[in-house]
Here is the input.
Amino acid sequence: MPVVTKDIVPLLVQTGASARVAEDIPARFVPGDTVLAKNVNPANHTRLPRYVRGKVGTIMMDHGVFVTPDTAAHGLGEHPQHVYCVRFTAAELWGGDASSKDTVNIDLWDDYLQPA
Amino acid sequence: MSHDHDHTDPPEDIELRVKALESVLADKGLIDTSALDELIDLYETKIGPRNGAKVVAKAWTDPDYRQRLLSDGTAAIKELGFSGVQGEDMVVVENTPDVHNMIVCTLCSCYPWPTLGLPPAWFKSAPYRSRVVIDPRGVLKEFGISLSAEKEVRVWDSSAELRYLVLPERPAGTDGWQEDQLVELVTRDSMIGVGFPKSAPDNHQQAGA
Here is the structure.
């Protein structure tokens, strides 16, 4: 790996490195769809937090196609797929005592979801 | 730089560990310490929440820009030059009379660096990260904010690849204010959603500022 030198720091910081990839992958869901976050307990790195597993939410946005950290973090390939913003009501996540107004919105990879 | 610590105190463990790592990596030729100094200088003195404040103030004064910002945050922020590491893919969410947005990363400390700088320590703390999703109103109270039960608190967990910025509501009494005056009212916390912009001082118009 090349060493980062002082002269390239400003360019590096200003450019960054998006995990978005230009792959033509079909989206399984569209905004408005109701989805279930899978109840799985993988031993590997994942961005599917426990608090949404097994919960039903609504697709709000399709952010496009991104590298999947679950595989990429372990050197197992980019496995590009759609990332969606999924909205869960506080009541769905936390039960009847939760506010009837509040929501939690979280970006989830296609693999984490199934139709509900 | 402040220099008021007692030189007889040994450095903290973490500080020693970082120094040891840095010298090993430098000795092996894996890092260039002047590049590290440059990075630290950038984030200590040049990249911070004033960038985000300029984005917000422009959105408050320019309806077309506000529209672009909400439909493609990344591109609209890039227009002002605040792109790069940890701001590659941005979403801007707007507070309204009915919705209050707040940002958290339950996984770690994901934060929009080009617009807000590096995250404050509390943003990275386990209590903030774990409590915001289950008790956002309780956390907001600790920041001095009490919201009507009728208002939706919309929490955004930015633990994936998108980074979020809150567009707060423009303070009352700022009609006719210029963009550069409005910048002064935008706080870092208001762009995370744990605060509001500063209020317009009552005597602002009379003072002719």
Summary: The first strand of chain B starts at residue 90 and ends at 94.
